[in-house]
Task: inverse folding
């Protein structure tokens, strides 16, 4: 499968939407949307997480649907708004990707494959080569404590099917802070299958990681995630 | 003298709670807790021997320690209940913010369909 341009491409691609959470991403958002539209005919929804720059206007002029959040909710809160939109519009699949150019739209065909072939309900774009020693240490610790198996637990580059969208759009998922361990536990509890897909992730064009940019934020993130892992871990991980 | 002072403090606290509820600064459901606290404050201030008796009954050698321990337990419980409520409220706020964003997008689409320029929504109207 080389293309996801469903109209006229021969193969019928079910209704899919691309969700991009964005906070002050004016420098990259236009290009990221253009890249997605080059590869797919899927509608692109940018959830503007209370940006103070022109992210909203630039996303609109690049042809995206914009859901403007009036209070900053963080990446997961923004993604969940997009998933609620997908649910309300009866989309079958939702792709989530970052607005900073780290996630390449060219990887989408490969990421959609396990879903379209019904091997998995969620696919995660993994790039375990990336990242600092700090990030790798965090991954190892989180995997050990949580019992979850996806290689790149923190990757926000994912494809969700309808069941996953429904589970994650609910009230319970609103309490989560990040789109990683807590989300994966919820999906695990729903009995959904997750498949890793190795993808390329170049360094982000601008900005910094919201988590891995200082020891304080990493400390909070790790403590939060480990507590979540200890409290939500199921006896037998099914992932 | 001390029973009188603590008793008066309890009555003042109770009166303050009533004024706060009357002026709509304090929700009545939270006022109930604080009225209970003020009442206990006044009662134990005026009749301190209640605690002395209770301490003897429970085998606590020094009665004020019992009072402090109970106060700390109740305060910790109160703070825990407050955080539970904060969590519930945070969920409500987040979902409302998401819903407003979704509705704003729908409204914009409708206005465009009718040929109207979408309304000017200030970027930060909910930030305050």
Result:
């Amino acid at each position: 499968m080389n293309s996801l341009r469903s109209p006229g491409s021969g193969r019928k691609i079910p209704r899919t939407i691309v969700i991009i959470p964005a906070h002050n991403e004016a420098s990259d958002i236009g290009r990221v949307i253009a890249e997605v539209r080059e590869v797919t005919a899927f509608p692109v929804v940018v959830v503007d997480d209370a940006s103070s720059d022109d992210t909203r206007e630039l996303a609109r002029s690049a042809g995206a649907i914009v859901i403007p959040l009036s209070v900053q909710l963080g990446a997961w809160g923004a993604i969940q708004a997009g998933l609620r939109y997908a649910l309300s519009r009866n989309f079958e699949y939702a792709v989530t990707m970052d607005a900073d150019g780290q996630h390449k739209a060219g990887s989408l065909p490969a990421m959609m494959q396990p879903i379209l072939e019904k091997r998995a309900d969620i696919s995660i774009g993994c790039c375990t080569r990336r990242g600092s020693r700090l990030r790798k240490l965090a991954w190892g610790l989180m995997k050990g404590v949580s019992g979850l198996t996806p290689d790149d637990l923190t990757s926000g580059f994912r494809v969700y099917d309808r069941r996953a969208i429904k589970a994650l759009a609910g009230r319970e998922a609103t309490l989560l802070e990040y789109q990683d361990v807590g989300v994966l536990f919820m999906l695990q509890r729903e009995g959904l299958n997750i498949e890793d897909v190795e993808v390329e992730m170049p360094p982000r064009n601008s900005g910094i990681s919201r988590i891995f940019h200082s020891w304080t934020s990493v400390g909070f993130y790790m403590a939060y995630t480990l507590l979540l892992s200890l409290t939500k871990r199921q006896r037998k991980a099914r992932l | 003298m001390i029973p009188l002072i603590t008793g008066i403090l309890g009555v003042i606290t109770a009166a303050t709670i009533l004024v706060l509820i009357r002026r709509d600064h304090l929700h009545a459901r939270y006022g109930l807790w604080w009225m209970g606290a003020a009442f206990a404050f006044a009662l134990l201030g005026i009749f301190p021997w209640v605690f002395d008796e209770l301490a003897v009954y429970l085998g606590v050698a020094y009665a004020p320690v019992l009072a402090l321990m109970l106060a700390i337990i109740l305060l910790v419980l109160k703070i825990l209940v407050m955080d539970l409520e904060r969590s519930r409220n945070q969920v409500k706020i987040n979902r409302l913010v998401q819903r407003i964003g979704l509705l704003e997008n729908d409204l914009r689409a409708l206005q465009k369909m009718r040929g109207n320029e979408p309304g000017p929504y200030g970027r930060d109207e909910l930030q305050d």
